[in-house]
Specification:
Oligomer: single chain
Distance between the termini: 46 Å
Strand content: 15-25%
Helix content: 40-55%
Largest sheet: 5 strands, mixed
Shape: globular
Bound molecules: zinc ion
Length: about 190
């Protein structure tokens, strides 16, 4: 980008402390690349889930210390379970894998904006950061339930300040929104 890094940001990068970078205003190239990488993985999961016939086109990835803990997709059909959304499945699997009931040192990347149930699960798990790709409207447009987490939009009175929420933009948002168009012929609505 040709922009000089501030001493503070350089120091943060050297320390591997990206959280500091997330919250300041000194450019965000490193963080965007990182977010894009994990969001892409969530989008890949969405495709995989449909290919496998496991459920709807939704993926979620839990990340801890820059490493993927679990990478999951919607399992509603596979598990015959209407609550087996990608994010809920990812929270369950990550807790099982880490053998604990809170994920406060983790982030979650979701191919689509989480529904209220998943948003609730993310809160209960104390995940510190959520990055999502497609807007809920993209899922609604192909016939999924039209319920949207008011809290996620910043209008819910129960919104907690300890969860950072980021909506992907640019290419990240585009590849995530394409999931619905590209998979809609391959699965039946439930
Ligand atoms: Zn959900």
């Amino acid at each position: 980008m040709g922009r000089l890094l501030s001493p503070r940001r350089l120091q943060a990068i050297r320390k591997g402390c990206l959280d500091v970078c997330l919250n300041d205003c000194y450019g965000n190239v490193v963080v965007q690349d990182r977010d894009h990488k994990f969001l892409t993985r969530a989008v890949e999961e969405a495709y995989k889930g449909v290919e496998n016939g496991d459920g709807g086109p939704f993926g979620a990835v839990v990340v801890r210390n820059d490493e993927i803990v679990v990478s999951c997709h919607n399992m509603v059909l596979n598990h015959t379970d209407p609550t087996a959304h990608a994010e809920v499945t990812a929270v369950r699997e990550a807790c099982k894998k880490l053998n604990r009931i809170e994920l406060s040192d983790c982030e979650i990347y979701a191919s689509c904006e989480p529904c209220p149930m998943c948003f609730g699960a993310i809160h209960l798990s104390r995940i510190k950061r959520l990055v999502y790709g497609a807007k809920a409207e993209a899922a609604i447009a192909i016939g999924f339930d039209d319920f949207i987490a008011d809290a996620l939009r910043g209008t819910g009175h129960y919104q907690k300040a300890n969860l950072e929420i980021k909506k992907a933009d640019g290419n990240g948002a585009m590849i995530a929104e394409q999931v619905f168009e590209k998979t809609k012929a391959k699965f039946s609505m439930y």
